[in-house]
Each structure stands twice: as C-alpha cells, then as structure tokens.
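Z., the sequence and structure:
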Amino acid sequence: MGQNEIIEPSNLFQKDGSLMQRGWCRKPILVYNKEDIGAKKYRIKEWDHYSILNKEFGFQLTIADIGYLRLMGFTWLDFKNQVRFGKETIQPFKHIDLPRSSLEESDIIFPSKKLSASISTRKGKRIITIDHPKFDNRGLKGEIILYDDPKFDNTVVVTGYDDPKRFYYNHKINYMPAEGTMQMGNKSYTFDPETSFGLLDWGRGVWPYRTHWLWGSACGKIDGVPVAFNVGYGFGDLETHTENIVFYDGKAHKIDEVTFHHENRDPKKPWQFTSNDDRFNMVLIPLIPEEAKLNLGIIKLDTSILHGLYSGDIVLDNGEKIHIDEMLGHAEDIYWKW
C-alpha cells in the first residue's frame, strides 16, 4: 500500500467539494474550509473525543454533532475493579458549532442546564473541566490539563471515497501527559503527568450511512522515553495511506497495513495485532470489556471495545526493535448506521 505523506499546506476542499489532497501527515496542515463541503448539512459529522488514563482509573468525554442530533458523553473507568460508568445525552435536532481547527485557541462549552463541562485549547495545553452533579448518582467534578508538545508528531489522515463529495479528516494526538484532580462522590482521584496520559480524537467527515471501523491506541513511557501508537482501518479509500503510526520520543514512524485478529469481536478475550511489514506485533489483554448496541430507528450502533494492556514489539524506521510490556490502551470494532 502506498503511504502518501502530505507536506504542503492547503485547504481541505476544492470549490466543487472534492478533496484537494489525500494521504497522511504529521500535523493538521489542511484548513477545514467547511463552507465548501459538497454535501447537505445533515450528513456532516463532527466530534471531539478525549480519553485520559492511568493504570488505576480514567476519564473520557465526547462532544459531537452528527447533523441531525447532538451527543454528549462522559465515562469513568475503574481499572482496579475492572468496571466502567457511563452517561450519554442524545438530543435530536440540536446542534453545536465545534471548532474548525484542532490546534487553534478555542473554547467548547457543553450545552446543558444539568451539568457544566468545557474544553479549552490554549498554546501547548488543553484544559478539561466538568461538574456533573448526577453522574452515577455520586457526582463528578474536576479539572484536567493535558500538555500537548507542539514539537511532537501526530496522527492525521485525509481520506476520500469513491464519491468525491465524501471525506474523513481526522487528527489524533496520541500522547499528552495529564495533570489534575477529579472528585467522584467523596473520593478524590489525582492524575499525575508521569503516569497519566491523554488522547485526542478529532474527527470531521461525510461518509456512507453504513460504516464499520477498527481503531486501537496506547501510550506511555519506556525507559523514560514517550512511546505511543495508533492503528486502525475502515474509513474510505486507503490506497494512498493508512493511519498506522508508531511514535517514539515524539517522532512518527509510519507502519503499512495492520490487521486486527479477534474471536467474533469478543472484547472479553485477548485481541492480536499484526502488520504486513512485520513492524507491529501486539497482543491486548482486556481489563474492561464493553459490548453495546443501540437502536434509535435510523441510528443503530453495534460496538465492541476493550481497555487493557498491550504487550509486544514495534520496529522503528531505523530497524530498532522496541519491546512494549503491559502498556495501557484500548481497541474497538464498531458498526454504525448513522
């Protein structure tokens, strides 16, 4: 498979709504000129998703506008007891204007009278706040700062489809040290930037009603060096690139095709990952498996997700092999009709 790296900045779309470039890049250097999208507004899907984890606990939040509804989601992960607590709010025919840039300064205020939450992007950091009095009948309140090193490479893909008016523009920051405190009920949880790390998944796109994707990610430190990876497939025409990248000390090392191996998508059993260039070989042992289905008529979801510990080997561009031993991360296999 070809791996076309985009190195020249441009708009994302031409005036006719087709993509100007396709491929992968290390930073989101294409401008999301939304006004030139060649599809109706109700087909445009946009989201910002954050996941902040350490080996004891984690917090996730999502804000999304998928054209005909608005979604807000909050999840608490307890790795010691291997349980999760989640709360989602789906509001049909409601919208939110999300930022067109994933890097420029911005503030996202979650639209709700029942809770307070925000995501603020500032130079070199992202600030997440929440005050959700009814979360899991205990309440959840706190602030987390994610430190985003501007010198670090990221995962960015510009993916097209056979239909030139469809696209997927995705920016993931797979490694951000996290600092802050969360209070759930009467218990306080501290995120230490030496052991707690955040992930951003920023997505904008127009794609078919029926969609299937697979995605995995993990990050941490090995001998004091930041290490992360992103693997996945499913969206669009991948003749020009994949989203499979290993990050070592902030530098991207491009991997070709990665295959997920699992038994009927069962998140309660280990998943294996291999690459056709033999540079990515990993096993994910589940800690918190999740299977969920949703049927809201025109919207249907069938999801299989596991958070757990990755072990295996990655090979850098220079041929150096790095062994990963029980690095915290996740993987998912999801079918959507939306």
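The first strand starts at residue 10 and ends at 11. The chain has a mean pLDDT of 96.

Let me know what you think.
H.
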